[in-house]
Design goal:
Helix content: under 10%
Strand order of the largest sheet: 3-4-7-6-5-8
Largest sheet: 6 strands, antiparallel, barrel
Radius of gyration: 14 Å
Shape: globular
Length: 120
């Protein structure tokens, strides 16, 4: 459906102008979050790779039941898991646009981050 102006109500990253729900565009659809932080993770690295960035975060609780393609909110920004080591760490890709429009660009090795799994 059409959600008007502003940020997608499903926290999937669309944030400018008029838009239709991106669940029609993304393989895994829009994700919903409770807003309750489940765990504080630790940034292991944020590395430039090609045109984007790769963020590796040490965590355990949010990795319970995780699969490739699942979404985890990192400091409130929905990101897609691209790799993980169960109970230890996960990797997400971060676009330059996401770094510009969020606080994720300020992260460095050792930074604490709020983590939450999607509920849908």
């Amino acid at each position: 459906g059409h959600y008007g102006r502003g940020v997608c109500p499903f926290v999937c990253g669309t944030s400018a102008g008029e838009f239709s729900c991106p669940s029609r565009r993304f393989k895994f659809g829009c994700k919903m979050f409770t807003g309750i932080v489940e765990e504080i993770g630790t940034v292991k690295s944020l590395t430039l790779v090609g045109d984007g960035w790769v963020l590796v975060i040490e965590a355990s609780l949010v990795l319970e039941g995780v699969e490739l393609g699942h979404s985890i909110a990192v400091n409130g920004t929905c990101l897609t898991v691209t790799e993980f080591v169960p109970g230890k760490q996960f990797t997400v890709g971060v676009s330059p646009e996401t770094l510009r429009k969020t606080s994720l660009g300020e992260l460095h090795s050792g930074s604490g981050v709020n983590l939450e799994r999607s509920i849908a």
